[in-house]
Amino acid sequence: MTDLVRVFTDWLHSTDPALFTISLIVAQPIATFVHELGHASVPLAATKEPVAIRIGRLPSLRQTRIGRLQLMLHWYPAYPYGLTVYKGRLNRRTRIMFVLGGPTAHAAFGALLTAIGLSGHLSVLTGVGVVVFCEAFSNLIPFTRHGFRSDGAQLWLVLRGKYSLLMTQDPAARRKL
Ligand SMILES: [Zn+2]
């Protein structure tokens, strides 16, 4: 037990690039999950209909349901293969909140990691937090890849008043639910 605590403490205070890289890889699926929760929270709060989140590839390793939220989870490849699906209708303002909810939660998660890292002088955590924070905004760049739209591209559609499936496809998500 003491050894485990020491390993954890060493990791927190390390500046080793390899440890940083591993920590960043571990943080990615968590950041993606937080991102999708940010999207899903809007229709969950604004409607009484079901919402689905998919993380990673299909077929999912684990499927579960928490209230109206359906989760389909796979650890590989977990970033940026996140997807939130809501098939009902939302008004324009709520649609904008739905699209922005993901990057907002993602940025908040990065900021939290950075704040904890800075307050504890934990280099790895600070670095991971900064990268996660920046990634949150990268998703707002409008682009379409393999037929799926980034949050920025979704937002552009909604702002132009175009109908959009109320669905956010984070980059490289290759299959629909
Ligand atoms: Zn998103």
Explained architecture:
- The protein is of the alpha+beta class.
- The protein has one domain.
- Helix content is 54%, strand content 15%.
- The protein contains 5 helices and 7 strands.
- The strands form 2 sheets. A 5-stranded mixed sheet has the order 2-3-1-4-7, covered by helices on one side. Strands 5-6 form a two-stranded antiparallel ribbon.
- A hairpin with a 2-residue loop joins strand 2 and strand 3 (69-73).
- Helix 2 runs antiparallel to helix 3.
- It starts with a helix and ends in an 8-residue tail after the last strand.
- The structure holds zinc ion (ZN).
- Zinc ion (ZN) binds at residues 35, 39, 102, 139, 151, 168, 170.
Task: Output the keywords.
single chain, 177 residues, alpha+beta, 5-stranded mixed β-sheet, two-stranded antiparallel sheet, 7 strands, 15% strand, binds zinc ion
Condensed summary:
The protein has 177 residues and is of the alpha+beta class. It has helices at residues 2-13, 17-46, 92-119, 123-138, 151-159, and strands spanning 51-55, 62-66, 69-73, 82-85, 144-145, 148-149, 167-169. The strands form 2 sheets. A 5-stranded mixed sheet has the order 2-3-1-4-7, covered by helices on one side. Strands 5-6 form a two-stranded antiparallel ribbon.
Overall structural domain count: 1
Number of DSSP-assigned strands: 7
Order of helices and strands: HHEEEEHHEEHE
Strands side by side in the biggest sheet: 2-3-1-4-7
Fraction of helical residues = 40-55%
Question: What fraction of the residues are assigned to beta strands by DSSP?
Answer: 5-15%
What is the terminal separation in angstroms?
43 Å
Q: What sort of overall outline do the alpha carbons produce when their principal axes are compared? A: globular
Q: Please work out how many helical segments DSSP would assign.
A: 5
- CA-based gyration radius: 17 Å
Q: Which cofactors or ions or other ligands sit in this model?
A: zinc ion
In round numbers, the mean pLDDT is 84
Low-pLDDT regions: 166-177
**Largest sheet, strands/sense/barrel:** 5 strands, mixed
Q: Give the helix/strand class.
A: alpha+beta
